[in-house]
Design goal:
With about 250 residues, the protein is mostly helical. Helix content is about 65%, strand content about 0%. The protein has ten helices and two strands, in the order ββαααααααααα.
């Protein structure tokens, strides 16, 4: 409290002597002085150092909260898209069972199934566009290397960007192939060389003999990209360019 005559008033109330509440853009000269007088800070410079540190911390927290909210949205959107795609395949297969012979009218269920399939495909396209938007914000480095859909799938398989960023590259390499990995550990099959990263062109188009090596190289780069995305949150153009060069070399 600051005393104005006999009545105590809050320290932030203006005293008419150039308080920051009176002049727009003025430096709040009284706040640092009061902080020093109250023993909150050792000096005016210390006050500003503490204030700067606090504001940076709050900003990092708010950015992380927004990022994590979008991370969860991306994960759930990818799961929904997978469900919609599975529904499209199921409806398409069941429509095929109802396909009429040449020259005969289609049964009502066949026509109804066509309407449903078109609607589901439109929704799948809309969800794909949303995933593209979210990966640009949540995982720009991962997206630049793996594309939006594979990036979303890796984040979904890992259970979130944070978990993906903390996984070793060997685990990233076989994400999505857990059943085959468990079977191998129980002696019922060979060790899988890759999981969902098989959908990446560099792995899919590699020769059978080279596929494992390409998958290991790619998973290492994806692991680094996920860490950059989680801890830094901005594109690393030099890293992206270097990985792009390596991938082009692999495919030639």
């Amino acid at each position: 409290m600051v005393m104005h005559g006999e009545a105590p008033v809050p320290w932030y109330v203006t005293d008419g002597q150039g308080d920051s509440t009176e002049t727009r853009g003025a430096i709040p000269q009284r706040w640092p002085a009061l902080a020093v007088a109250a023993g909150v800070s050792d000096s005016v410079d210390g006050y500003y150092d503490t204030l700067h540190s606090h504001l940076r911390s709050r900003l990092r927290t708010e950015i992380r909260e927004v990022s994590e909210a979008e991370d969860v949205e991306l994960l759930r959107t990818e799961r929904l898209l997978q469900a919609v795609e599975a529904a499209v395949d199921d409806v398409s297969d069941r429509r095929s069972d109802l396909a009429p012979p040449d020259g005969m009218d289609a049964p009502p269920a066949f026509t109804a199934g066509e309407v449903v399939e078109v609607a589901l495909r439109n929704q799948a396209e809309a969800l794909s566009e949303l995933i593209d938007h979210l990966t640009r914000r949540v995982a720009p480095n991962l997206r630049a290397i793996a594309g939006p859909r594979l990036s979303a799938r890796l984040i979904e398989e890992a259970g979130g960007l944070q978990r993906l960023a903390r996984k070793p590259s060997g685990t990233v390499q076989v994400l999505g192939a857990e059943s085959a990995l468990f079977a191998h550990l129980q002696g019922r099959g060979t060790s899988p060389k890759h999981g969902v990263i098989y959908t990446h062109p560099a792995v899919r188009h590699a020769s059978h003999a080279d596929r494992g090596a390409v998958a290991r190289m790619l998973s290492g780069k994806l692991s680094i990209a996920a860490r950059i995305d989680y801890y830094r949150g901005s594109p690393d153009e030099e890293f992206i360019a270097d990985v792009g060069k390596r991938l082009r070399e692999v495919r030639t």
